[in-house]
Design brief:
The chain is α+β, with helices and mostly antiparallel strands. The chain contains two helices and two strands; from the N terminus they run E-H-H-E. The protein has one domain. The protein has a two-stranded antiparallel sheet.
Length: 50
């Protein structure tokens, strides 16, 4: 699959919910990653190029 570049944008509600769910687990570095969610941006999407 190719990456389709896009203008950086904030996470939408569904994307943020997925990351919050993943980061609800306790592991080394999880709290640092959780603290970055408000600054996280989408810089590319996966898709098919025909």
């Amino acid at each position: 699959m190719a990456r389709l570049p896009i203008d950086p944008r904030p996470l939408n509600a569904d994307e943020r919910a997925v990351l919050e769910n993943i980061l609800s687990a306790e592991f080394v570095g999880a709290s640092q990653l959780r603290s970055q969610l408000d600054r996280t941006e989408v810089i590319a999407v996966r898709g098919f190029i025909e």
